[in-house]
Each structure stands twice: as C-alpha cells, then as structure tokens.
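Hi support team,

I submitted a single chain yesterday and got back a structure, but I'm not sure I'm reading the token output correctly. Could someone confirm the output below corresponds to the sequence I sent? I've pasted both exactly as they appear in my results page.

Thanks,
R.
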Amino acid sequence: MITDLTRRDLVDLFLAYDPAPLASFLEEVNGHRRSLGIAWWGSLGDDCAFLSRLYDLDALPSTDLRFKSAREDIWQHRENNADWDNEWIFFDARFELATSDEKLLRFLAETIHPEVRADRAEVERLRTEYNKILRPDRVEIRQVSTMSGRPVFGSGAAAPRTVQPQTLREAIGQAVRESLSAGQVEAFCDELGMPPLPDAS
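Hi R., thanks for writing in. Yes, this is the structure output for that exact sequence:
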C-alpha cells in the first residue's frame, strides 16, 4: 500500500524536480531562474491529451456548474483561465491519485511512456526518482514491454536488492573516506567497538 507520506513526496518531486541542474545553476549565476517541476503531460502538450490516455474525460463529471464534463473543466482552468497549478491533478478526487494505488502507478508509468516522453535519459532519470520514493512501500515502476525498441513501463512489487558483500564494503569505505577526517574515522571505529589498530612499530 502506498502511504500518504509517499504520495506527498511524489507531489513534492513533481513540484521541485530539476531536469537540468547544471543549466539551472548557470542560469541562476546569470541572474535567471528556471522553472522547476515535472511537466507530467510531456510532449503531448496539454493535460487533456495526456489524461485521455488514462480516463474518459467526457464521462467524468464537471465540478463547475457551467460545464458538463472534466474535459471542459480542464480546458477552462488550464487553458482558458490558467488558474490551476500543475499539481492540480494530484488533488482532484475524480482522478483518484490520492486514493488508488493502481491509478497512481498507472499515472506515473504513463508520464514516461515513449509516446509521452521521447528523451530516454530523461525517462530513466524520472523512473529512478519515482522508484527512490516508491520502494520503501515495496512497489516500483519497471519495464513491462517495448514499443519501437523503446521501453514501456508498468508497476509491480519492488524486486529484492542483491548486493555482493564486497560491493557493499567498498561503498561503505568510500562513503566513510569522503565524509570523515582521519580523526573522525578513528572515533567512528571506537563507537562501533572495533579494536584499535596495532602500533606501526
């Protein structure tokens, strides 16, 4: 089950994700600020084009008395007035992203579908970010098929990690070397109850 905490972390990711950190840094140095966040509709260009792949927007009701369907709502508030923020989709009960694990996972997988997002490097970066957040809840976005040689994703139980002991030892050693001074390493080893190193004499 995907927890509310995980759902909040995903919304935060969609708001704060930086697709090009180096470009953002350079622009900030030059006094500009890039807009952050994941454009979940990708190359489809608008919300309706993307959401129509997952929902029947004409069958979903409007929340605005002036309109008949979700499609009309979205056009009014995203295209005409532009008064809904990008993360509106996560809080609109009609789409059930806050209540249905299946629909949330389908939504995430669709954001990296090859017809939605063509840049393979960007797709892999997003999938990695999604899975960092999802794996504590024991689910992940994974490849389930291909389309014209490009991966198509779905979801499933997170695969168990298999890490060789030597790889783990090396990673721990590297992390200790990079984050602690020699004196701190000695204090750290003392905290772990490791015996002191023998005298070099």
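A quick pointer for reading it: Residues 120-134 form the longest helix (15 residues). Let us know if anything else looks off.

Best,
Support desk
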